Amino acid sequence: MPLTPDQQSQIDAERAAAASTRRPVSEGMEARLYTAHPVLDHGFVRVIDYMGGDAAIVQAARVSYGRGTRAVSDDAGLIRYLMRHWHSTPFEMCEAKFHVKLPIFVARQWIRHRTANVNEISARYSILDREFYIPAPEQLAAQARVNRQGRGDVLEGAEAQRVLDWLRDDATRAYDHYEAMLSQDGQQGLARELARMNLPANVYTQWYWKTDLHNLLGFLRLRADAHAQYEIRVYADVMAQITRDWVPAAWAAFEDYRMGGVQLSAKGVEVLKRRLRGEVVSQEDSGMSKGEWREFEGVWG
Amino acid sequence: MPLTPDQQSQIDAERAAAASTRRPVSEGMEARLYTAHPVLDHGFVRVIDYMGGDAAIVQAARVSYGRGTRAVSDDAGLIRYLMRHWHSTPFEMCEAKFHVKLPIFVARQWIRHRTANVNEISARYSILDREFYIPAPEQLAAQARVNRQGRGDVLEGAEAQRVLDWLRDDATRAYDHYEAMLSQDGQQGLARELARMNLPANVYTQWYWKTDLHNLLGFLRLRADAHAQYEIRVYADVMAQITRDWVPAAWAAFEDYRMGGVQLSAKGVEVLKRRLRGEVVSQEDSGMSKGEWREFEGVWG
Amino acid sequence: MPLTPDQQSQIDAERAAAASTRRPVSEGMEARLYTAHPVLDHGFVRVIDYMGGDAAIVQAARVSYGRGTRAVSDDAGLIRYLMRHWHSTPFEMCEAKFHVKLPIFVARQWIRHRTANVNEISARYSILDREFYIPAPEQLAAQARVNRQGRGDVLEGAEAQRVLDWLRDDATRAYDHYEAMLSQDGQQGLARELARMNLPANVYTQWYWKTDLHNLLGFLRLRADAHAQYEIRVYADVMAQITRDWVPAAWAAFEDYRMGGVQLSAKGVEVLKRRLRGEVVSQEDSGMSKGEWREFEGVWG
Amino acid sequence: MPLTPDQQSQIDAERAAAASTRRPVSEGMEARLYTAHPVLDHGFVRVIDYMGGDAAIVQAARVSYGRGTRAVSDDAGLIRYLMRHWHSTPFEMCEAKFHVKLPIFVARQWIRHRTANVNEISARYSILDREFYIPAPEQLAAQARVNRQGRGDVLEGAEAQRVLDWLRDDATRAYDHYEAMLSQDGQQGLARELARMNLPANVYTQWYWKTDLHNLLGFLRLRADAHAQYEIRVYADVMAQITRDWVPAAWAAFEDYRMGGVQLSAKGVEVLKRRLRGEVVSQEDSGMSKGEWREFEGVWG
Q1: How close B212 gets to chain C, by Cα (Å)?
Q2: B108: annotated binding-site residue?
Q3: Domain-ending residue, one of D182, D201, D220
């Protein structure tokens, strides 16, 4: 359970407060606001503010004066058109802000998405909490054999136990020493900005992360993907559900054109056309490398 | 008067609608929402959405769970600290979206601020309205003599009249021909994407422009400045008033540290220190060029 | 002919100078350097500096110490892999800088690509040259009937002549008055920042434009595309040839995966799979809108 | 000593190779190219490519056709003018690419500078080296008492020894277990993307980091500053020397206007003007908070 009673009561207070606004409101997002959705063993994602919704996308595409009176189905059609033709700017007109608690090694992947605004708690200034990510047994995977960057079977028996013990013990000892170095009890106490270097990459940090819908979808496309590391994918999965509630029409278009879509190379188009004409095409005959052919067959058989 | 009755009634409908939200609300910004603030002869600025306020800045700086219960004066002090020490990320946590109608030559300056989201009406797709910026007589300034990039005295008499006549006649004729080229009455009609090339740089365009508070302040710092061209400064001035109503504490800090502040070079610091010790310093003796010295004396006498 | 003798001799001098460098060199790009490639009636594109090449992409992907000794074919394979899997950061490690002369209405489309560095000549500071884009007769196209944003048949006869006359006469008159307003002969002379508003959107401007290879390819993907307006596409076409000479392996991958590739939606994948199984699928039965189906059939028949 | 013989010989080979180029060359930067400048106990910075120099700044500001024949002193004056008036785009026309080896906790500060291109070695894909940052005894500072984010006196005696032992022992044990978890000797071997979570924040990573001169100066302004953490400042100090050799005129202007300059608030300007008139001004009387006054007095006495 990631929240202290004090934190939970602050969140409850935020959720209880309501105000009147002239701004457009997304009911799906209002229902999500402030709630901490648990992720991993100590992490969470919570939306803490948002701006716009499906209507804001179509208004921007039309540079409208008002909210418009067109049918919702027209709006969905326009949103599909914009997504299909890679019009990114109308999607940039919506904005969401998240409060995320996450292990540092996940934060290091996440921060590579540069078009976002970030405020992270500073370990120069504050003392981090004693919280580490320890994988659940079913996530303790071996190195993949084929793919240098992936997971294979789940570890079992003594090996699994050894890994869990080391992760837990090393993190505990590192944190004990972190505290002992910082202590000003009978000693000067090491500077926070130095002591933190002893903490492992599975210690939890927190940040506010704000981005526009276009870049959020770009993040989800890469991080809610099957090739993403499990520990970031679970964050992306929660954010995907939040996004679906926030902008249902944009989400449906995104699922169709991006998440469920397929990018074909010129060579891939050619092979499919030959197949549609009834030809049998082999890798040697396709112009593709073995790796490409494997990926191509993964989709088309 | 820049708005048609239909546009005004759409704006009135937007202002009349109210909804309940859990999001933080800025009363100063709610009062501004949707209203078209007139600028120049046919232009306007109107806020059409926003996110956050002064509280969002301090929450981000503290990575808080809730809205916090600290005194407003504490918040203002922290905001001043952040501004003084060039901490930009907490200010990025607020966002505002504007609908702006502006002459193309102003839009061309404005667009150079790259960290913003923009949707402009497309003259490939739509037909622009017959609206041009014609300067008011008191803005019809001569080329500055000292500064190659600035205005001198106001033109008078026959010269002023000639300029106004040319601006009006050329714009009118260009627009007449634009319409005539587009017409499909007894002819094919030129493509919109080509016909638009006949329109002068003082024709009005419109866009949605969205940015975060940090970048908005950066825009205002350059464009609400006395050295900015008058025709963009009047837009920045209106946006400055809106920003002041939106985030009063951030605005006060910005006025003190940026708009009213002065950047001294190392040489400038040295000269002031010598003056404080009672020394009389001349340009020759300052290490500054003549231009720098003139600017320095403009502030310090 | 876009260049004055003085400009041409400056370019010749740049091309004649050679220096020794430890940096990696792209022979294809060296051959292009500084030359003004003509575009439209008065425009040009010329590369004026560059950094990196195909090797820089693979070195960045491997975070290498040296230039590496791997075979060129290995490099090409890795570059194809990176392109196929949307790894953008290694392509960002190459940079190119262009000097471009282009009509203002083209510049207004171009500038929407925000991740670039730009220095444009300032019409607040300088006086623009008397040069306008007048379309060649075969480019004088009618408005498309189906597509609100496109061109139809070429205009002919009296209509074509009328359009050309108006474009030429209005531009000439506008420029005559621009000069007359600026003149300080017997009058004060209007400020440059004001006089420019009389110039039409087909007047030529110039800028330095610098971007990384990833963003350059993004620009080319949209602007060297058949749906782009002809007047910007001709610039993109020249830059595409330059890019091909600069980074042959990256260009080949880009042509295969982006320019010649096809993005299929989940619905499109489903339809193709049904077709591959021998099924006949109609639009009504596809889940696609009429517009989507038309685009789908455009590729797959 | 951070480099293996193989790495050193790759660097030597890069330095030995020379090619002819038409591009402008910076002799100061050529002398620096590829050399690994040692930083901290195992880190380094080395420039691996660059584009442009002082001349590129002035050419961009003038949108020139050629290299120009103006005097170097004219160029320096223009560069000073651009810096003084916050013209950032001409400085963006120069680009530099660095290869950096640095502890993860330093990398986490560094990456917050978003306008840069980065390729980091991936610990999902590769196995990190057994190298940790252990502070030199004279850098083992206590937490500052006044400033929550800073260092006080150097630790001494038993406390210092304890800290060094813990840092070394915990890092060693964490790395031993990292290796043991990865091992495929008699066991499956944990996935690399999981094993890395056991490594502490002082383990070294490497990246290619590329940015333009404007953003590089922004980085140096914050990170070569006395308030920056020592462990990032030493990197910034080396890069500052490299930058000085690369663009001497821009660097001189930067030192005068930014590094050695002072930002005065409106209140600060007012206080100085009163002092120049001979008045004695106290904090109570200044309108400044105690913190601001302390900082003000730090400069002006």
Answers
A1: 16
A2: no
A3: D201
